[in-house]
């Protein structure tokens, strides 16, 4: 019997006061619980790319290439330099310019495509080529909030030495503190500056201004690098990964896992039926990034509502299905693209009848308590 691991970014670490009613709190009282530790980005460690994370200290992780690995119909060239392009809003606060997250600007996929087409002429002289959704592996892929760019290396084996901040982490941050750094930073900053001038006079922003909507006044580039050092066939080969995160999906594909695209808004009836089949023979990872994203973007109430909906409409029905099949279910957290370093994240595991067992007053286990163990050790144990 294989295992279904559900990672929900944004799960609370410790519950203060009364113990919560969500499934992870109930299972923590009656099943096996603890904390898992990761060095670096847990998504990279999960799929056997910890060495890549270590080698990229001081320069960008190749997030653009990994996203291309998941999104594009054709295999992306690992020799090319890849990056992600998105759009945001900068606003002035005292003497500083601060970022607004894409989720708070109200931008649509069509608007992002329109602005990218306009920027293409600016990008071409610098050697950058954009890869529109027509080149993606399926027409119905969820829009990830960014587009893909790539360019041929100037010299054989060229690797860009630049550090950037992913667009999803820019909410409330200062432009001065988050400008690209490194040897190739100047060329990226030049592209961003020229892009700002173009967006300022674009018809879309003229229309948004007339409608009283937030302007998309700043393009943003991040995740710059090649795919030469991405290891193939490592980690959970043969498993299944359900996620809306193209980076995690790219890591899964590099490891040989089958990809499934997760609609984080639901409904999940079809997914639950698929998981009932897959959990019988294969390790399955289901990843929800939305709750943590909403927290980072200062929407705690919406994040809590999202967690409750995931618990009610996905986790609880999954527990019932796994219990009927004597399956094994793990609930935990990756924390998405949050701060890296040494992290201790909560998890709980139940199998068969334990997944249905109700908490009683003498059950003292609590979510977030238990021994800290290596994430890689736990991954192997969960799969037994």
Number of domains: 2
Note the run of SSEs as H and E: EHEHHHEEHHEEEHEHHEEHEHEHHEEEH
- The first-level CATH class name of the largest domain: Alpha Beta
Q: What value does the average pLDDT take?
A: 87
pLDDT under 50 segments (min length 5)?
Answer: none
Strand order of the largest sheet: 11-10-12-1-13-14-2-15
- The number of helical elements comes to 14
Q: Largest beta sheet, briefly?
A: 8 strands, mixed
Number of strands: 15
Helical residue percent band: 25-40%
- Beta content comes to 15-25%
Task: Please tell me about this protein's structure.
This protein is α/β, with parallel strands linked by helices. The chain has 2 domains: 3-56 and 232-382, Alkaline Phosphatase, subunit A, CATH 3.40.720; 63-225, no CATH class. It is built from 14 helices and 15 strands. It has an 8-stranded mixed β-sheet, sandwiched between helices. The longest helix has 25 residues, at 300-324. The relative contact order is 0.25. The mean pLDDT is 87.
What features would you highlight for this structure?
about 20% strand; about 375 residues; five-stranded antiparallel sheet; single chain; about 35% helix; 14 helices; Alkaline Phosphatase, subunit A; globular; alpha/beta
Task: Produce the secondary structure layout.
Layout (H helix, E strand, L loop, with lengths): L2 E6 L14 H8 L1 E8 L2 H5 L3 H6 L7 H9 L9 E13 L2 E5 L1 H4 L3 H15 L5 E3 L15 E5 L10 E2 L11 H4 L2 E2 L2 H16 L2 H8 L7 E8 L14 E4 L2 H9 L3 E4 L7 H10 L5 E5 L1 H7 L3 H25 L3 E5 L9 E10 L20 E3 H8 L2
Parallel strand pairs: 1-12, 1-13, 2-15, 10-11, 10-12
Antiparallel strand pairs: 2-14, 3-4, 3-6, 3-9, 5-6, 7-8, 13-14
Helix pairs in contact: 4-10, 6-8, 11-13, 12-13
């Amino acid at each position: 019997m294989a295992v279904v691991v559900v990672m929900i970014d944004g799960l609370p670490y410790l519950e203060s006061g009364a113990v919560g009613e969500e499934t992870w709190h109930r299972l923590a009282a009656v099943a096996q619980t603890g904390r898992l530790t990761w060095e670096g980005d847990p998504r990279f460690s999960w799929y056997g790319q910890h060495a890549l994370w270590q080698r990229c200290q001081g320069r960008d992780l190749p997030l653009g290439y990994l996203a291309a690995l998941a999104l594009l119909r054709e295999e992306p060239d690992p020799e090319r330099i890849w990056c992600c392009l998105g759009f945001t809003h900068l606003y002035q606060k005292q003497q500083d310019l601060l970022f607004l997250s894409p989720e708070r600007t109200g931008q649509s996929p069509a608007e992002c495509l329109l602005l990218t087409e306009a920027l293409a002429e600016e990008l071409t002289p610098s050697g950058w080529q954009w890869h529109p959704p027509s080149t993606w592996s399926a027409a119905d892929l969820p829009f990830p909030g960014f587009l893909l760019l790539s360019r041929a290396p100037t010299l054989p084996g060229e690797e860009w030495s630049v550090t950037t901040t992913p667009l999803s982490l820019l909410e409330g941050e200062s432009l001065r503190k988050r400008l690209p750094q490194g040897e190739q930073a100047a060329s990226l900053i030049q592209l961003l500056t020229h892009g700002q001038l173009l967006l300022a006079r674009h018809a879309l922003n003229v229309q948004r201004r007339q409608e009283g909507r937030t302007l998309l006044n700043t393009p943003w580039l991040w995740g710059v690098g090649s795919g030469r050092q991405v290891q193939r066939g490592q980690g959970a080969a043969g498993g299944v990964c359900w996620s809306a995160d193209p980076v995690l999906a790219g890591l899964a594909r590099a490891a040989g896992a089958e990809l499934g695209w997760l609609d984080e808004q639901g409904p999940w009836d079809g997914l639950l039926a698929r998981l009932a089949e897959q959990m019988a023979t294969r390790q399955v990872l289901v990843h929800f990034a939305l709750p943590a994203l909403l927290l980072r973007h200062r929407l705690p109430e919406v994040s809590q509502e999202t967690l409750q909906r995931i618990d009610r409409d996905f986790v609880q029905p999954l527990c019932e299905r796994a219990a009927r099949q004597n399956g094994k279910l793990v609930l935990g957290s990756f924390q998405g693209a949050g701060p890296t370093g040494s992290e201790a994240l909560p998890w709980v595991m139940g199998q068969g009848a334990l997944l249905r067992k109700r908490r009683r007053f003498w059950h003292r286990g609590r979510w977030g308590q238990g021994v800290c163990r290596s994430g890689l050790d736990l991954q192997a144990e969960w799969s037994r």
